[in-house]
Amino acid sequence: MEKLIIEARVNEYAMRKRNPHVPWTSEEIAADAAAVREAGASILHFHARQDNGAPCHDEVRYAETVARVHEVCDLLIHPTLGANTLEASPEGRLAHVLEMAKDSRTRPDLAPMDMGSTNIDIYDPRQKKYLTTDQMYVNTTETLLYFAEAIRNAGLKPCAVAWNISYLRETLIFHEMGLLEEPLYLGLTLTEGPISAGHPASPAGLDAYLNLLPDDVPIEWTVYNYGGNLLNLAEKIISAGGHISVGLGDHAYQEVGTPTNAELIAMFVDVAKSVGRDVATPEETRKILGMN
Amino acid sequence: MEKLIIEARVNEYAMRKRNPHVPWTSEEIAADAAAVREAGASILHFHARQDNGAPCHDEVRYAETVARVHEVCDLLIHPTLGANTLEASPEGRLAHVLEMAKDSRTRPDLAPMDMGSTNIDIYDPRQKKYLTTDQMYVNTTETLLYFAEAIRNAGLKPCAVAWNISYLRETLIFHEMGLLEEPLYLGLTLTEGPISAGHPASPAGLDAYLNLLPDDVPIEWTVYNYGGNLLNLAEKIISAGGHISVGLGDHAYQEVGTPTNAELIAMFVDVAKSVGRDVATPEETRKILGMN
């Protein structure tokens, strides 16, 4: 079987209350990058953070972080567009990525495109109450058409992310329109905990995506579990030829010893070994995803 | 097996180019109502239309249509909130329904709640081009909380409609919060043709919903195919205990002889007979859905 791509989602906007190992600063992210590379990851997904952990939308901080990571390892880099910048224009949401792409010292390799829109409110099942009631994650078709063109023109590989089947169908339309190169790098979002916008993190929730992937489109798919433990599905995903996207940004993993990102990645490498699948290096990942 | 509920979706905003039998005026809708009742439908879903077929958001026209239908048959009535009134406030979108509910002469029985938000652009596969790029169908959680309370206070039965799994999960949260009475009347949206916002109208597209329905929540589920032929899935749906929502509003059905709504309903009744399932009367439907 093709080698396994492990993408390390090291921090998102996670704080340190549940797991103190979440990296925030450029230095911390670079140190974690080297460690997850050593453990078996080939792609780094990160969010720039202020020194106190607050979200950071500063282009300079993004560039500084990428430059530091490049200095310490050869991980492919997949920055976020920043969910907290949704009020910005499409151009504003992508600007830091395009700016970084101009300089080899700060150049990322991939960029995410969340292929649709959804309600994304926070629900507390203990109180049986929504803690927010007006949160939407909006990516209009017009925005996505701009992203597809700008990401391609910058020579980056888009990661097309689905939160549900509506997103998957929009992705397949973009492919039919010739806007996404083959193979597609497709992120399948499962969600647990306070966010219910993705599919449930169960075999049935995953299969609801997999059974609708077309046979005639080359697709490399990876799976997230935002808000929950992905280990429960790891063997299923890896055995089925999928890839893994995981990290402390998505879940604190207290139930398996509150690991560092590198320790967490090592657990997935162990699952891959147990089913006889090798792990891809960054260079091999580049080939699997058809990147230059 | 429990009896089959057939909901007739007689017109939506369909024009008459592909099928001349789409009812527009109050008189036409009432005549179709009597005919589909005779054929086996127990619920009528309709959109008020102007005499030339244009969308009509006039409360008086809605009320006049319901009154005429009540005069000619005992169908349960499920008006739309009107997709074209999305610019209106939540109160504005529901106002005609609440107004009609005050008078037994015009009183509807059900009201729809589309349980989430999605991009809903129109795509032309022949041109490989989006004909719209900024269309969204927005129902925020806040709006849905208002709908749930107002529809319950009016004594109507909500039909919770899912376009994808994100909507299904929001529906199940509303149930957990005690905002939706059991059994849920759950609409599962499949889409074909120019709209790709729902699940594909294939066995896998339907199963992607069915495999995620919880075992411990009483649910009566019905299936639409917006933009395509539902007959292809009728035996699967009816055999699995689901209900049918179909009509010329969703598809012209030229491939089966450009039928009237009543002729179309009769085709689904035939499928039910072939699998040994009886069709519910409006009174039986009321009991199945737990309505007063």
Layout of helices and strands, plus pairs?
The structure is a homodimer of 292-residue chains.
Chain A: E1 6-9, H1 26-39, E2 43-46, H2 59-72, E3 76-79, H3 90-101, E4 110-114, E5 118-119, E6 123-124, E7 129-130, E8 136-137, H4 141-153, E9 157-162, H5 165-176, E10 184-191, H6 203-210, E11 219-226, H7 231-239, E12 243-246, H8 261-274, H9 282-288
Helix pairs in contact in A: 1-2, 1-8, 2-3, 3-4, 7-8
At the first level of CATH, the class of chain A is Alpha Beta
The count of domains of chain A is 1
How many angstroms does the end-to-end distance of chain A come to? 22 Å
- The quaternary organization reads as homodimer
Supply the number of helical segments of chain A: 9
Q: Work out the number of β strands of chain A.
A: 12
CATH fold-level topology of chain A: TIM Barrel
Parts with pLDDT < 50 across at least 5 consecutive residues of chain A? none
Structural class of chain A: alpha/beta
Give the DSSP E fraction of chain A (strand runs of 2 or more residues). Answer: 15-25%
The secondary-structure element order of chain A is EHEHEHEEEEEHEHEHEHEHH
Helix content of chain A: 25-40%
**Full CATH superfamily name of chain A:** Aldolase class I
Largest sheet: number of strands, sense, barrel closure of chain A: 8 strands, parallel
**Can you tell me the CATH architecture of chain A?**
Alpha-Beta Barrel
Molecular structure report:
The structure is a homodimer of 292-residue chains. The radius of gyration of chain A is 18 Å and the shape is globular. With 292 residues, the first copy, chain A, is an alpha/beta fold. Chain A is built from nine helices and twelve strands. The first copy, chain A, has a single domain (6-288), classed as TIM Barrel. In chain A, helix 3 runs parallel beside helix 4. Chains A and B meet through strand 5, strand 7, helix 4, helix 5 and helix 6 of A and strand 5, strand 7, helix 4, helix 5 and strand 11 of B.
